Amino acid sequence: MRLINIKPGPALALFLVLLPFAAVMIAYAMGSDIRLTENPSDKLLPAPGTIGDTMMRLLTEGDRRTGRILFWHDTWASLQRLWLGIAISASVGLVFGLLIGLFPLVRNLLSQFVAVLSMIPPLALLPILFIVFGLGELSKVVLIVVGTLPFIIRDLSQRTLEIPQELLVKAQTLGASSWVIAIRVALPQVMPRLIQAVRLSLGPAWLFLIAAEAIAADLGLGYRIFLVRRYLAMDVILTYVIWITLLAFAMDWLLRWASRRVYPWAEEGL
Amino acid sequence: MSFVTVRDLFQTYDNRPIIERVNLDVDEGEFISIVGASGCGKSTFLRLLLAQERPSRGEIRIDGAEPAREPGLDRGIVFQRYSVFPHMTVRDNIVAGESFRSGWGRFFGEKSRAARERADRTLARIGLDHVADNYPATLSGGMQQRLAIAQALAAKPRVLLLDEPFGALDPGTRVSMHDFLQDLRAETGMTVFMVTHDLEEAFKLGDRVLVFDKPRWDPHDPSRYGATITYDFDARNGGIPYQTLKEASHVPQPA
Question: How far, in Å, CA of A116 to CA of A110, rounded?
Answer without folding.
Answer: 10
